[in-house]
Amino acid sequence: MENGIRIQKVLSEQGIASRRKVEEWITQGKIKVNGRPAVLGQKINPNRDVVAIDGERVYFQKSNQKYYIMLHKPRGYVTTMSDELGRKCVAELVEDVPERVYPIGRLDKDSEGMLLFTNDGELLHRLISPKKEVAKVYYARHEGQANADDISAFAAGLTLRDGTVCLPALLEPLGPGESRITVREGKYHQVRRMMASRNMTVTYLERRQEGTLTLGDLPRGRTRELTEGEIALLEGKTQP
Ligand code: URA
What would the pLDDT profile of 145-202 be if each residue is shown by its tens digit? Predict the structure, then answer.
């Protein structure tokens, strides 16, 4: 998504001309983006870029298009759209999305991995409801080794050091100081605090899966749009 939407898609959706016609105009040098001749396949952000056809500026109508975006959040970014303390926020990583999108849930500043965004208010509201118990799968590196007692304690529902009680969760040791953890809720710093309650300190945390959506090989710091199938799963229209 880094570079926006293809210019022929934008102009055809605005009803200005067919995609083919737009391509023709591009090859004839009739279209300029920010004062420079457009090139075939060029992607634009209709909210920021200035497009002119034969010297006439095109004013884009605001679309009510819905966006569903997956970000591979890097460490060091806070999950907010602006930060009063001037810290790096995830908003910077989705600024090429043509509409303002909001995070579905959170990832703490030191954690990495899948963070979903949308401008679909209804879906956002539904998905961040605490009643929505979607399984979230994390990969953790930690000091200390998970043992059979830890696995049983996770399965029974841990009590954190401050007395907070967690839903049953799955702890799967992967190797020395490495585990996969599956939880169905999103309390503040939950995985770090669950591990701490069993005397393990998390040194690296990455969310790899939410429900049926997987991070896959999306590079760190990059976004992609969800496929229609993924959106249907997110909306609960299709059984996985
Ligand atoms: N658990 C954490 O500790 N941090 C997160 O960001 C998500 C789950």
Answer: 999 999 999 999 999 999 999 999 999 999 999 999 999 998 999 999 999 999 999 9
The reported pLDDT for the residue numbered 126 is 79
Residue 30, Cβ neighbours under 10 Å: how many? Answer: 16
Residues contacting residue 76 through CB under 8 Å, at least 6 positions apart: 88, 109, 110
**Separation CA 67–CA 97 (nearest Å):** 8
Question: From the CB of 189, is ligand 1 less than 6 Å away?
Answer: yes
The answer to whether the pTM exceeds 0.85 is: no
Provide the 10 A C-beta neighbour count for residue 8.
24
- Residue in 49, 54, 83, 108 annotated catalytic: 108
Residue located nearest, by CA, to atom 7 of ligand 1? 107
Torsion of CA 180, 186, 191, 195, to 10 degrees: -110
Which tokens is 52 given?
């002119």
**Residue type for position 119:** N
What is the number of residues in the chain? 240
